[in-house]
Amino acid sequence: MASLGRSIKFHLFNCDNTYRLDSAETLLLKMADDLNLRISMDRRNFRLHEMPDVCENIIPQLQMDYAVLVVHAHESRLSINEDNAGIGYAKIYRALLQATGNKVLIVIGGDDNYRDQDEEEQVVISRWARRKVASQFDAEYLDGRKSFIFSWNKAHREIHEEALKHYLDPSKKEQKFQYVPKPKPKPTQDEESEDDKEFPRIGGSGSLQEEPVDPRPYYLEGTVLLDTVMRFGTISYEEEDVKVWDQRWEPSGMIVRHLSKDWMFRPHANIRFVATADGGVSYSVRPQSIAISLSAVLLGILNWLFSGLHFQLYQSLFVLLPVLNFCEFFKWLIEEVKAIVEQVKNTITQSVTWLMDVVKARVE
Fold first, then answer.
1. Side-chain half-sphere exposure of 304, counting CA atoms within 13 A
2. pLDDT in tens, 200-224
3. Are strands 244-245 and 224-231 parallel, antiparallel or unpaired?
4. d(CA 37, CA 4)
5. How many CA atoms lie within 13 Å of 162's alpha carbon, on the beta-carbon side?
6. Which residue stretches belong to region Disordered (predicted)?
7. Beta-strand relationship, 269-275 and 38-46
8. What's the distance, Cα to Cα, between the start and end of the chain in Å?
């Protein structure tokens, strides 16, 4: 009987039972068999109000080599590593990083947003989930050099097994994970349809065997890779903002950091990435003037004050003014206006405070 290899201790964490931990356990047990490892696991489900105690008192006492943080794809916000978000998992994620020496895997369960089977076979995280979290992490925490973020719906897939083998292999430390799906078997002669025989696939011999996926697709010069909106230096991937996007391409971590630093004070700008002749990428930023941005905010406040129910209420009261006690009405109107002014002041104060917090965090 072959002796077991090195021993590895995992701790699995989830908040409020949003997704079952045994899904991640199944993947780890598969690794124990395939890599001849002694993997031990402990799990900890905790409530949201318990998070400070878990971070400050429990995690520092745990003995673990790796941690796995499991979240659900359809939580209200996938905030895992955001500064000053107010909500989210940043506190526990960073506590786990410190306790394990940056060896933290993230699993996003319940992700039913894969476009098709090809996407499931080719990537460890759906493009939808990647858009949600990519801006929160440097690239090496996504591509296997330092960690991974996995996503699946109900169970892991073969690509997750290969990625985890890469991650646990000491000889591949700091190396980017590259995966080529296994070629699909050619159909037998009996399985070929008449249409396939008469009309081979354009650009090929008619074989159903797929070529390996090129991790860096070639783009013609001038191809628009991404045309979208940027707010305070953060690129938006929301559907209402994106005009053009080839989802095989994403801006590098270096570009993202430069944009964040250079445009952190701009509330709104349009940005376009275009392929260049040498295989690189150029981008142009078209900022919206600050005057226009402030005008839009003020216009929104004025529209809120003088439209809809507020306007109808005041209009009705002025019509009834002759039959009302003028002095009492005037006193009531003053109090109402004062309340509205105070509400607007609080709204503006909160917005300015939030903006200053964002600026302060990015400067730090």
1. 11
2. 433 433 333 333 434 456 677 788 8
3. antiparallel
4. 6
5. 15
6. 174-215
7. unpaired
8. 56
